[in-house]
Amino acid sequence: MKAIKLKRIKPVLTFVLISLISINQVLAVEPGNNDSEAVSWYQIEIILFKNKKEYEQDKEHIAIDMTPLEQKLVLVSGKPMVNSQLQRLDPSELKLNKSFKAMTRSKDYEVLEFAGWKQALIKEQPGIPLVITSGAQHGKHHELEGKLTFRRSRYLHLHADLYMADYTQGANFNLQSWLLEDDNVATRISQLHNNRLEQSTTEDNTTNILLSNSSNSNPETTTIEQESSDLPATLDPALAEATYIATNIAHMNETRRMRSGEIHYLDHPKFGLLVTIEPTDPPFVYNER
């Protein structure tokens, strides 16, 4: 009787051992799966617009802070060439296309940017800012500029840090009126100082380019080019970029918690932002051979 019991127990023990080995193999694979799930792809769409209705500008002490970024993302129309580029999607296929068409027909708004793209977000990691430059260009600046930062934790989060301003060219600008526009004269002087530093840098670069070109050019050709030019030296396009002064600056600095598929509206009396984000497939196939 005892021998029969041992024969019956051996297959059972073998089955248990095999099961334990299989469980250990599954548990060993699980961390890898969790790591892959930490990276998720999302389709993000935005509409940036300005309000055409007049409003009384608050006398806020605002200066445009466009500090250079260590990491940044930019939108491109063609195929991305580097990791910092995100490809624009076809506007006609975007979820916000109907809203875009309605806003373009409205007399109250002017759309400055309508874009969509795919972006990878890593869970519990700080987002990389997407640089925004929209609207009319004035020298080195745009009517609307700043950055949008998306990140993912338990929820999706957006931080909008955007500036909108009117720009006046230096030749047509009343410096005294601008300095006394509000009580914070120090801020105005600081802006002038920064503009002057930009202009000095541009002048040095322009001088180096001119010296380099003149050393390798034909004197007769150079004389003809100078005589045929209608632009005085003081109106060099490269230097004109530094003569724009920002006025009526409006700043949006807002953080929003979002859920997938929701459409959020962030507004300021001068401009606004419509944004939506939802999961999507990556723009490529992993482990493709």
From TrEMBL:
Claim: Lyase is one of the keywords in the record: no
Annotated signal sequence range: 1-28
Composition-biased stretches (Low complexity): 205-225
Residue span of region Disordered: 198-232
Record has Translocase as a keyword: no
Pfam families: CsiV (PF10972)
The entry's keywords: Signal
Name under which the protein is recorded: Peptidoglycan binding protein CsiV
Species for this entry: Alkalimarinus sediminis
